[in-house]
Amino acid sequence: MDCFFVSCERIREPKLIGNPVIVGMGYVPGLSRGAVATASYEARAMGVKSAMTISKSISLISDKDIDPSSEKSGYYRPVDIQFYKEISGSFRSLLDEFSDTTRHIGIDESYLDVTKETNWESVLNFSQNIKETIEKTIGLPSSIGVSSSMCVSKIASAINKPSALVIVKPQNTKKFLQNLPIERLPGIGPVTSKSLHSMGINTIGELSKTPISELKYRYGSKGLDLANMANGNDRKKVFSMGPRKSISRESSLAKITINYDEKKEIIEKLSLDLGSRLAYSNTLFRTVSIKLIEPPYKIHTRTISVPNATNDVDVLKSSAIYLLNEFQETPARKLGVRISNLSLQDVNQTKLENWDV
DNA sequence: TCTGGGGTCCTAGGACCC
DNA sequence: TCTGGGGTCCTAGGACCC
User: What angle do CA A246, A109, A216 make, to 5 degrees?
Assistant: First the structure.
């Protein structure tokens, strides 16, 4: 989806269409707080970028709801993740009608296996049809990339945003990737990118010429993935999502605190929050983790596993608090609780226990 | 540059088992 | 008392993604 959060706001508030729009996390209407989650393309053209502070953004584009007379003005809205999730759901089910094999990633991105289309002409029609249907029935603008691999399709979908349709035929893959910066490859973040630049590798073409042995030596299994992607040999298949591996809750503190009771209270609240999600599913957990971010940004994690899978909220809560004990004196800016090692409750559990007896 | 919330995968070391 | 080879599970941290 193109600037998904903004597009969602435009669905329920059409006056935002065509105007600069900024959706901010931690933003409170009327205050210059928080950071930019998503900016419309009109706002981006005026210099607003993701993750920029709202106050910086307001210095570029003032808030039209506050100052309607201003020449350079746009609309600011807080993130309403529940609403976006609803829209995401309808867009996913729409895509599921187009292909048996879909993989939905995050809130606004999906892969479709369209191998059954037999030629590129039909792929083009198919893709245009999807794009128009999403636009007409849900009101969402989107960009689509088509190729013979997930990796190249992803890059292609992003290369001409917004509202783009890019098809890369197999014989053109090398040429397409050749001069793109390595940052376009999924899996290359700030750390890997810096490391590759230090080796003099700046484009995907240059990466593809680097000996695989060297990439493997420096980056382990990831090095092999990089080599494959750079050569357009990404063999990952589109498959539906497996079961969820972990569930977590975290929250940034209004103020950095060192006080143990305050930290404990937050950990308890997050645990209960997680627990309430378990109550209505038949999910069991075996492992509990906490996360504590110490200023300026040092991440600590502690983990403990219990012998038997459970959905007992008290076990969750007391485990989390037990783990917190090690950080009695540590200042925290953010705290989180996570459960993992998930399994589904076995309906025959009781029977089995009886057998054990 | 500063740092929201929810995830996944990988690595490396340690404990433990046969 | 010293310690092979092969394996599993657990934990802490890091990198990355939307």
Answer: 70
Using a 7 Å CB cutoff, list residues 267-326 of A near strand C: 286-287, 289, 299-305
pLDDT greater than 60 at residue A53: yes
Per-residue pLDDT, A348: 55
Distance A237 CA to C3 C1' (A): 46
Q: Quick one: average pLDDT of A71-82?
A: 91
Measure CA to C1' and name the residue nearest B5.
A250
DSSP state of A203: B
Q: Measure A346 CA to B3 C1' (Å).
A: 41
CB A149 within 8 A of CB A234: yes
Q: Is the per-residue pLDDT at A351 higher than 60?
A: no
Residue A109 annotated as catalytic: yes
Domains, chain A, ordered by start: 4-79 (3.40.1170.60), 82-170 (3.30.70.270), 181-230 (1.10.150.20), 246-354 (3.30.1490.100)
Q: Is the CB of A193 under 7 A from strand C?
A: yes
Distance CA A327, CA A332 (A): 9
The pLDDT score that the predictor gives to residue A354 is 38
Residues in chain A: 357
The whole-angstrom distance between residue A295's C-alpha and the CA centroid of its chain comes to 24
Alpha helix stretches (DSSP H) within chain A: 4-12, 41-45, 54-60, 81-98, 120-133, 150-159, 173-178, 190-198, 204-209, 212-219, 221-230, 260-279, 313-324, 349-356
**pLDDT per residue over A111-154, tens digit each?**
999 988 889 999 999 999 999 999 999 999 999 999 999 999 99
Which residues lie closer than 8 Å to A167 by C-beta, 6 or more apart?
A120, A123, A124, A127, A145, A146, A147, A156
Nearest to A201 by CA among A226, A171, A233, A224: A226
Q: How many CB atoms lie within 10 A of CB A112?
A: 21
Nucleotides of C under 7 A from a protein CB: 9-18
